[in-house]
Please model this.
Amino acid sequence: MARSAITALLLTSVLIGSGVVVHAQGTADLQTTISQLSSLDYPTRMNAARTIRRLPAAEAVPALAAAVQKHRDEFVRYRAFIVLSSFGDRGTGDLVRGLLGDANDRLRETAYKWLEAHPDASMVPALLNALQTEKAEFVRPAAVSAAAALGEDQRVQRALLGEIGRGMDFFRSAVIEALGRRRAAYAVDGIAEVSTLQGPLQDDAIIALGRIGGPKANAALKAVPADSLAPALALTLRAAQCMAGEPCEAAINTIVGAVTAPSASAAVVRSGLSALTSVATIGNQSATAALVTLGERGGVVRDQAAIGFATAAVTDPDFMIAWLDRAPQKTRESAVALLKDGFDDLEADFDEEQFFAATRAAYWKAADGSDTRALASLLIQRLEF
Model:
């Protein structure tokens, strides 16, 4: 499809709030548009994705699935799967199963992310095998997370407990983080051992314990030698204690104060914003608001606050959309701008696509003319979905 044709379609569909659906102009045109998903020109590949998202599922899904399986451009295969994932088609699971052994690392990673979002107990053997065979540095964490989503299975529990202490720190960090996100109470003892040891995994273990919560995790957090922690790690501990159920307001104020102090080191700023992000990802409104406020400061603080805010958004899209819906107009404007910057830097294509899917669902669920529908339309336009 020529760029002029794409532009015409986009002019028709820019009022996404009107519920416009673009109809394909033919198989050849759609295949050309899919091929443009890998264009080096950002507007071209963005407009291609926007055009495909607005097609009826009956037209878009088969063409995208075929591109995932057969397209000659490996990046097109990856981007086609990203866009396909937002349609929620029932046949995607069958497609994913065939991608776990694919040579395309990006595609394999995204297939594992899809499995994490759509846990399937029948995939336990395949995922346990992946823990033994997947060596790609950025793919393995996705495989670990997909397995952790099936943590009720004792085979998965045994395997992941073994992974806490096995391999490079980068891989162990991914295991601890995934167990924390899944609130894996069965892993508290193993994570607690790491939380008291100085080193690169200590902050991961502390946050994971905070996410898991419960009496054992709380006891483990109390066992962390707070007095001997570096200032940056002390902020992580405050955040974890908040996440585990202790009062949060004082912790959030302490973290914000540390980040904004004139003498704040780069490590304190980085750790403080990471800590606030962790609290925001569990649906804490005060931490979410704090990220927006810090994002108004500019510089490195804004950059890191933007990534943190975007991380909170993709972790729980429904919470973020509801939070934005309730926010005062001025706060909403700042937050959407911060979210745009965060999405630009986050490099999480699959997660951002799921945020779009949630936004689209919120749009159709909301009443015509409502503030929620207007917000959804604003998000889709500003975030270039």
